Structure formats: C-alpha cells, structure tokens
Amino acid sequence: MSVKVLGIYGSPRKSGNTDLILDRILEGSRAAGAEVNSIYVRRLKIDGCLECGSCEDTGECVIKDDMQSVYPLFQEADIIFLASPNFFYNVTAQVKLLIDRSQAMWSKRLLEKTPEQRRTYDGGKGYLICIGATKGKNLFVGVELTAKYFFDALDMSYEGGLLIDRVEAKGEILKHPDAMDRAFELGKSAVDSVKV
C-alpha cells in the first residue's frame, strides 16, 4: 500500500514562491512512490468556525461548505505538507480558516482517544513550509506554534519542515536552487520515513 501525501497550498498568490516550493516537495514525494493529493486553499469556499459546540458531541462540523471535502483528505493522509507565506508572523487568513475549522478533528480525537492515548500520534506526520520576506529572529515562532497545534488536532506529529526567510518577489525562490533541492529531498525523505 502506497504512502498518501497531502499538500496544502496556502498562498493567495497563484504560482508564487510557496506554490513553487511545495510543487518541488511533492515531486520528491512522488519520486519516493507516494500517492499525492493537493488542496489549493485559495480555491475553497470556507466559512469561519461558529463555535457552536456541535462537533464536541459528534466529531463532525455542521457547516456544509468546501471543508466537507477536506476532512476525508486529512484522515486519509499519512503525511501532510502545510505551505504558507508568512503574513504578520503567521499563516495566511485563508489557511487560518482551514485550521480553525479543524476544531472538528480535535473534537473527534477527544471523543475517540483517552488522555493517555492522546500522548501519541496515530494519524501520521505533519510538516510546515513557510516563506517570509524579512529576517527577524521571531519570524517563524507564531507560524510554527499554529502548525504544531493544527497537526495535533489531526492526530499527527509535527516534524518541522522548511522555514525560509528573505524571499519575497514572485518566483524569487527559483534563485535559491539549494532551497529547491532541500524541498525535493524533504518530500522524498518524509515518504521514506513512513515506509520504514
């Protein structure tokens, strides 16, 4: 059975740096034999969480929008690559909507696992890919915390990823072949680590 990889394209900008580097990561995953699915968050029609509490009883979200097609992809994936440019030290608003709506997955986890069982992750591995324009020492602190707890809600361990600073202009990442090479290797090695 092949490893299932999900790539989440979180940039509002089509064919920008985040798209390009995630493309390369998924090429690496395919080269390692993975079955790859992709979500372009900018194409989804997603409403914000209503905080209605319904998912606490059922583990399912009551809002009928494009997230209903995303939840099964979360559950099927062995590996998720979450890619977002850095907006104000965090993910984009589009990605944050997707993450907030993952509260249903957290509720599902609470319903299905005891506190002791929740100390381990059975859903797979999660990786963050984030590109920022500046070079501040705290540039990735907020986005990493957000990613860590997103993957926690999905019952996935957070495995780090690629955090790249000082890249802003559209397509500029292509001037950094070392980063593109690292991206390919990350896609490949992530799949190989699940095969073991």
Provide the helix percentage.
Answer: 40-55%
The ordered H/E elements are EHEHHEHHEHEH
Category by helix and strand content = alpha/beta
- What's the main sheet like? 5 strands, parallel
Average of per-residue pLDDT values: 96
Number of strands: 5
CATH topology: Rossmann fold
Number of domains: 1
Percent of residues in β-strands: 15-25%
| Cα shape | globular
**How large is the count of helical segments?**
7
Rounded to the nearest angstrom, the distance between the terminal CA atoms is: 13 Å
CATH homologous superfamily identity: Flavodoxin domain
Question: In CATH, what is the class?
Answer: Alpha Beta
Q: Within the largest sheet, what's the order of strands?
A: 2-1-3-4-5
So, CATH architecture? 3-Layer(aba) Sandwich
* Radius of gyration, taken over Cα atoms and rounded to an integer in Å: 16 Å
**Which consecutive residue ranges, at least 5 long each, have pLDDT under 50?**
none
